[in-house]
Design brief:
The structure holds 2 protein chains of 2 kinds.
Chain A (H helix, E strand, L loop, with lengths): L2 H9 L4 H22 L2 H18 L9 H19 L7 H11 L15 H13 L3 H11 L5 H8 L3 H21 L5
Chain B lengths: L2 H9 L3 H9 L6 H24 L5 H6 L5 E6 L11 E4 L3 H7 L15 H6 L12 E2 L2 E4 L18 E3 L1 H10 L4 E10 L2 E3 L5 H13 L2 E12 L4 E13 L1 H5 L8 E6 L23
Parallel strand pairs in B: 1-8, 4-6, 5-10
Antiparallel strand pairs in B: 1-2, 3-4, 6-7, 6-9, 6-10, 8-9
The chains are: A mainly alpha, B alpha/beta.
Chain lengths: ~190, ~280
């Protein structure tokens, strides 16, 4: 069943919508969650919570053309929340690794720490940054920091060597940091 | 800004990036497949074309082709009225010899003449008669024993002139023998020294294509005039031909030809020791 028909089921409040969503995207969502939490039971909890959230969010949202990313965004948010609630010893290695990596992108000087940064503004800035990158760079960046893929997984997916993936990510972090600084996003 | 804020913000990026990253995988490398296919086609092409590119090693074709062998004939200077007995030294290049060496295991009745290397190797010792050269059951003559050196001759382009001795021999022996003859080329009435220009090379190639066996012979003549010895070097084209080949000799329009018996070109007497076919042999 295509995404639009699944969304129609949500709109008609047909519970079959969840079954169809699970059939089409269940394994992907579970795998995505598992990459972040590194725990299958928690990943299944994330998956089930995702269906519940989607049931509440559709409508008013109408993700006919981006259902997977819509669901994945929910799953990702839930999985990150689980990681944050855990104490530092129980957090998954990939989450810690990515948190450390992403901190390289944070501008170090400027605004006061207490100044609130709107997440949507930051997302827009990252969107603009990604628009200026090549398709390969966009994909690698998203697979790493959105899907939480490991470097070898990205390399296999796109046919790149691990060193190339690492190099691409390193350069993009540096460039993103410079880009955010120019846009006035500072700590 | 905290690291989790940035991580959350990345979670809010445009869905198109997420959808694209999810759908796209490694591009199938068509260029590698195309390159491999091209290599296979090339290899297959070379494999099948190779037999066509490689000259056939058919010994018959080699025998009938152009064969130019340089042979040095050293004439001993002797007193007047003393027989001149040519001794033959082969100086043909090694490659030539390899190229035209016949395969003794191959017998082909269509071969007009055996390989010249065999002929030269079979030249008997200086005291023996030349008629010991028996080729395909036939003797080969190179002189009549009473040949006279030819006077200065010129031949017009497109004309063939046979020496009187050769005509006599052909009239007498007809097809019962092979003929070893010398060919002198002329152009516009001027004698052409063999190897002087590439046209003679082309002509010998043509003669080879016609089925003659062509040899370039170098004759070194030492003349002692009493005070000192001078060496004269002369070059000749030798043809090994059948009766029919001589009768039906086809001249090129660019050359004139004077064809004579081999021994006509050497100063000699009627001494019976001269290695010529003297007609005394039963050639039947």
């Amino acid at each position: 069943m295509d995404d639009s028909k699944i969304v129609d089921l949500y709109f008609s409040r047909n519970e079959k919508a969840i079954a169809e969503t699970q059939r089409k995207y269940g394994s992907k969502l579970r795998a995505a969650a598992n990459r972040i939490v590194n725990d299958m039971q928690s990943a299944e909890e994330c998956e089930n919570d995702t269906y519940m959230r989607a049931w509440k969010l559709i409508p008013p949202n109408e993700p006919r053309t981006y259902l997977f990313s819509f669901l994945g965004k929910i799953t990702r948010h839930l999985a990150i929340d689980i990681c944050r609630k855990r104490n530092s010893e129980k957090r998954s290695a990939i989450f810690c690794e990515l948190t450390e990596e992403i901190s390289e992108c944070i501008p170090s000087e400027g605004m006061a720490a207490e100044e609130k940064i709107e997440s949507s503004e930051l997302a827009e800035a990252i969107n603009a940054f990604l628009e200026s990158r090549s398709s390969e760079q966009q994909n690698v960046f998203v697979r790493r920091y959105w899907f939480f893929d490991t470097v070898p997984q990205i390399g296999r997916r796109y046919g790149f060597s691990q060193s190339k993936v690492k190099m691409m990510l390193s350069r993009m972090r540096t460039e993103l940091r410079g880009y955010l600084e120019r846009k006035g996003f500072t700590v | 800004m905290k690291d989790y804020e940035l991580l959350d913000a990345i979670g809010g990026i445009d869905s198109k990036f997420v959808e694209k990253a999810e759908k796209q995988t490694a591009h199938f490398r068509w260029q590698y497949v195309a390159a491999a296919a091209a290599c296979l086609v090339l290899i297959a092409g070379v494999y099948f074309a190779y037999p066509k590119l490689t000259p056939k090693t058919d010994p018959i074709a080699e025998t009938e082709g152009v064969e130019t062998v340089e042979q040095t004939v050293i004439e001993e200077t002797v007193a007047e009225n003393t027989a001149i007995i040519p001794s033959v030294e082969q100086t043909e290049p090694e490659t030539e010899k390899t190229a035209i060496e016949p395969d003794p295991s191959v017998e082909n009745p269509d071969i007009g003449m055996p390989d010249i290397i065999d002929i030269i190797q079979e030249v008997p010792d200086s005291n023996g008669p030349l008629n010991q050269e028996i080729l395909n059951g036939k003797p080969m003559i190179s002189g009549l024993g009473n040949s006279k050196p030819n006077e200065d001759i010129t031949v017009d382009n497109g004309a063939v002139l046979l020496s009187a001795s050769l005509e006599d021999a052909m009239e007498y022996y007809e097809d019962d023998v092979y003929y070893r003859v010398m060919v002198e080329f002329f152009r516009y009435g001027t004698h052409i020294i063999p190897g002087q220009d590439f046209l003679t090379s082309l002509e010998t190639t043509r003669l080879g294509d016609e089925g003659y066996i062509v040899a370039l012979e170098t004759v070194t003549e030492e003349v002692d005039n009493g005070l000192h010895v001078t060496t004269n070097v002369k070059y000749y084209f030798t043809l090994h031909a059948t009766y029919d080949q001589l009768i039906h000799f086809k001249p090129a329009s660019d050359f004139g030809y004077f064809i004579s018996l081999y021994d006509e070109n050497f100063e000699h007497s009627n001494n019976s020791d001269i290695p010529t076919y003297n007609g005394g042999m039963d050639v039947g």
